[in-house]
Amino acid sequence: MAFDPSNYTFTKLTQFGDYDPPTLYDINNKGEIIGETGVKGILLRNGVVTDVIVPGAVRTIPQGINDKGDIVGTYTDPDFSLHGFLYSQGDYTQLDIPGAGRTDVTGINNRGQIVAFAADGGTATEPGGYIYEKGEWSKIEVINDPDAFLVPDGINNRGVIVGSTSNEAFVLEGGQLTLVDNPLSEFYIDFRDINNQGQVAGTLAPFARSSSGFVYDDGEVTTIGPPRPTDRPTQWTINGINDAGALVGNFDNRFRDEQGDPTGNYAFIATPKVAQPPKPAQPAVDWNELAARVEANFAATGKWFIPDDISVPEPAEPAVDWNALAAQVEANFAATGKWFL
User: Fold this and answer.
1) Pick from 30, 96, 192, 334: CA 20 to 30 A from residue 231's CA?
2) Pair 73, 83: CB distance under 8 Å
3) Which CATH class is domain 7-272?
4) How many CB atoms within 10 Å of residue 338?
């Protein structure tokens, strides 16, 4: 089924209080959202905002979160060097690619695999995409293209990696690289995150100095964004997607008030609309009347039977295997002396 942007509801996130509208980067399957506001990272969990700040850092940017609540990202130290970090169970761990002058950690999956980008590498470290697993860093490999220059942004539980390379976006699965061009212009396209269904969230430039969020699904790029004015330029980004298809991103109407402050900028979550179940059809049988007539037949004849002039539909297949259920209850009683499921 093709991705349908009309099936989404956009909601402004207003739980941030005195914070500036944050840049949101990821959402996990528990609905936990991470992002950055000012120079500090934030975690939005169950409606409560918590700071994510690497001790001693002058800026912390969380960029990925898995279903265990492990957070990865990048921080700037007092010397303005860029490092990667992992925040897990209350502890911060520095994650730097050996030999890299700058490490930008961008994504983590439930298996603990982490993707990152190394820049300003020395002679022993090539710039490009790296993966961290089982305590070691290794260069992300592309079959038949060992020199491929990748900037990874996300990784799902199957180990599929997405990101950008040069002016194209990419999907890397099993060492096989798929490149995707911007279908709207000659400008950039970036795959930011991928869920376990293979749907990709990202941002592209439909024209110069602009950005639009999109979802890549079944080989097609479909832009999707919040309601927006038509009388002024607007732009928005989408950075994260979870398995339910929920998206997180930011909206910028590129309009400033008389004091020069931006207005109308906000973070948002976009969620698929819940399909309403169809109204049940009118029953083919008036069961109350049928019961009354069966009881009348028994009173008159001593036999239970359904009148010939009523057609009773065949019963639907049961949603529960009652025989198996009864057997399980009986087995539980035999083992424990108690009836329970």
Assistant:
1) 192
2) no
3) mainly beta
4) 8
How far apart CA 52 and CA 135 sit, in angstroms, is 23
Q: How many CB atoms lie within 10 A of CB 326?
A: 10
pTM given for the model: 0.78
The pLDDT value recorded for residue 257 is 43
Long-range contacts of 209-218 (CB under 8 A, 24+ apart): 210/235, 211/235, 211/236, 211/237, 212/184, 212/236, 213/237, 213/238, 213/247, 213/249, 214/238, 215/3, 215/5, 215/241, 215/247, 216/169, 216/180, 216/191, 217/2, 217/3, 218/2, 218/3
Which segments of the chain have a pLDDT < 70? 1, 17-19, 121-124, 229-233, 253-264, 275-285, 307-341
3-state secondary structure of 72: strand
Beta-bridge mates of residue 170: 163, 179
> Where do the structural domains in the chain lie, given as residue ranges?
7-272, 287-336
